[in-house]
Amino acid sequence: MVQPLNYLKETPSQTAGPYVHIGLAPGAAGFDIYERELGWDIAGPNAEGERIRVEGLVIDGTGSPIKDVLLEAWQANAKGIYAHPEGGGEVEEGFRGWGRVITDFDTGEWGFDTIKPGKTPGRNGRIQAPHINLWVVARGINLGLNTRIYFEDEAEANAEDPVMNIIEWERRRATLLAKRSEKDGKVVYRFDIQLQGQDETVFFDV
Amino acid sequence: MPDQGEFYQRDRDWHPPAYVKEYKTSVARSPQYSLISLQNSVGEITGPVFGHNDIDPMDRDLIHNYATAGESAIGERIILHGRVLDENARPVPNTLVEIWQANAGGRYRHKKDTYLAPIDPNFGGCGRTITDENGYYYFRTVKPGAYPWRNYVNSWRPAHIHVSVFGSGFVQRLISQIYFEGDPLIPLCPIVKSIPNQEAINSLVAALDMNSTIPLDTIAYKFDIVLRGRRSTLFENRLEGN
Ligand SMILES: [Fe+2]
């Protein structure tokens, strides 16, 4: 026998279930209980950088959009700084970098308004291309899924990105690229998430 | 020694796998390729910061936070309390804990829930709080009822409260479900059984805590939550490298 290490074990995950909205997005689900809903304003009014919208679907293995998903975004500001004591510096007043959205009950569409993040420091002095960290939970998802939204028009930075580069398959890297377009004078990035199939989105064990 | 390194790798054998045949909804919603392993960088070790301006002290009292003034939710009155700790057994202070649940009859206040048990006009079913400097949290609520769900023809969820916790880094983000000591439905539930390890299942069962009850008023259950722990920066494991 040896000495015990005495680490605790992490609380095991369970699915968020079909009624996740009640707890985490009651207002968005049409349920008026809290005075202040959390996560609806990622960037705030003072953030520098390009104002963008990111939207998409989450698609299951049958090819159908999932209509009970909750997504959370975590991103740096345009200078590549996260709003956190270890985030690399100061951010604009009101910039939180965190957002929470649900998919539409009828269409499965989700979307959030934010600013395009800047490049962030990676490990060992390398630079990471602009990206938004995304966490996806839903009924039938037993442990939240982590992925990253990269931007297709950042080809040069993406090519150098250390995380993109550990993905062996070019075809799979493409699942992390949000497609840029303009709608009513607004910049919109499309990011559909495929849970299964040949074009299954890359998910990370972080 | 402050913990400034990466978070410990998640023990994926302790958590439920993505694909669990007996939990039917997981079948078409489970990724099938391997996850890409990623070492932590700044976006993983940081996460949103919440403060007392974000919430109201009343938010933690589900017996009253949706009730008409002077009224309260129907059901067995309980205190749910405990600490949020990390794998190093250190408290996780100032972190957001959110819960949601069915009412005492097993019905959610949600337009997709059509179970015949009635809505309680005085019960919303969600609450939130921020842990104190010792990682401590508490809620007051009613014990939720069991409810049927469409998995097998005759499937019932054990009484449970859904819980969401943040921690300080986005990779600690966690959602789980809290069960109650003595519930005979626990070992029958395909969602519970998605967790492959009995010891891990036991860690989701809140214990009856007689010492924390309020005599003649409210019974208590204790539930500690453990989030991933971080390395201390002893030697060469600084994120930035040299
Ligand atoms: Fe539930």
TrEMBL record, chain A:
Residues 47-197 form the Intradiol ring-cleavage dioxygenases domain. Keywords: Dioxygenase, Oxidoreductase. It holds the Pfam family Dioxygenase_C. It comes from the Bacteria. The keyword Transcription does not apply. GO terms for molecular function: ferric iron binding; protocatechuate 3,4-dioxygenase activity. InterPro entries: Intradiol_dOase_C (IPR000627), Intradiol_dOase_core (IPR015889), Intradiol_RC_Dioxygenase (IPR050770), Protocat_dOase_a (IPR012786). CDD domains: 3_4-PCD_alpha (cd03463). Belongs to the intradiol ring-cleavage dioxygenase family. PANTHER family: DIOXYGENASE, PUTATIVE (AFU_ORTHOLOGUE AFUA_2G02910)-RELATED, PROTOCATECHUATE 3,4-DIOXYGENASE ALPHA CHAIN. This is Protocatechuate 3,4-dioxygenase alpha subunit.
TrEMBL record, chain B:
It comes from the Bacteria. GO terms for biological process: 3,4-dihydroxybenzoate catabolic process. Keywords: Dioxygenase, Oxidoreductase. GO terms for molecular function: ferric iron binding; protocatechuate 3,4-dioxygenase activity. Residues 45-229 form the Intradiol ring-cleavage dioxygenases domain. Residues 8-40 form the Protocatechuate 3,4-dioxygenase beta subunit N-terminal domain. Pfam families: Dioxygenase_C, PCDO_beta_N. NCBIfam families: protocat_beta. Belongs to the intradiol ring-cleavage dioxygenase family. PANTHER family: DIOXYGENASE, PUTATIVE (AFU_ORTHOLOGUE AFUA_2G02910)-RELATED (PTHR33711), INTRADIOL RING-CLEAVAGE DIOXYGENASES DOMAIN-CONTAINING PROTEIN (PTHR33711:SF10). This is Protocatechuate 3,4-dioxygenase beta subunit.
